[in-house]
Amino acid sequence: MAEGGAGRLIREKFLRRLYFVRFRRQLPDLLHFLAGAVKAGLSLPQALEFAGREFPPPASREARQLALQLQAGWTVEAAMAHLRKRWPGEEVDLLAAAVTVQSKTGGNLARLLVNIAEAIRERQRIEGLLRTLTAQGRLTAAVVSLLPLGLGLAEWYLAPQFIQPLWASFQGRCLLGVGALLFLSGVGWMWKKCSASSPVMLIS
Length: 204
Hints:
- The protein is mainly alpha-helical.
- About 85% of the residues lie in helices and about 0% in strands.
- The chain contains ten helices and no strands.
- Helix 4 runs antiparallel to helix 5 (about 90-105) and helix 5 (about 90-105) runs antiparallel to helix 6 (about 110-135).
- The termini are far apart.
C-alpha cells in the first residue's frame, strides 16, 4: 500500500514537472499572442479566452483558467498571485509582477507583454547555452560519483577479504563514515558547480 502511494506520488511529481517544462516553452509564444490580441482591441480576459481556444495544452489550460478567474471578478493581482502559487518559477514570477504593476499603474500592456516574452526567451536561450557548455562537466561529475561505488563492488567481487575489514572493525567503520562524508561533500560541490543557472533578464 505504501509502495503504491509512493509510486503514485513520484508519478504525479514527474508529470507536474513535465507539464511545467512544456508551459515554460510555450510561455513566450503565448505572451506574443496575447500582445497581438490586445493590440487588436481585445481586453486581457478576452485575449486569454481566445488563446485558450487557439493554443495547445498546457498553455491553453492556463490561459482559460486565468480568463475564467478574471471574468468571475478576480482582480489581476489575485489571478497572477494564484498563477505564481500554482507554478512557482522565475519566469512566472516575472510575468505576474510586471502584469500586476501594469494593472495598477496603467501603460501599454501589449508592449509590456512583448518585452516580457523577449526577456523570457533570452533567458531560456542562455540556459540552453549554459547546459551545453556544462555538459562535459556534468558527465565528469556523474562518472566520478559512480567510480567509488563501482570500484567497491569490483573489490567485493574479486577480493572480499580485503574490503571486509572496513565494516567488520570499528576503525574501518570510522574510515567508511569519514570517506562517505567527504565523498558526498565532493559530489555535492561538483554538481553545484555544474548546475546551469542564469539571472532574470531585465525588462527594458
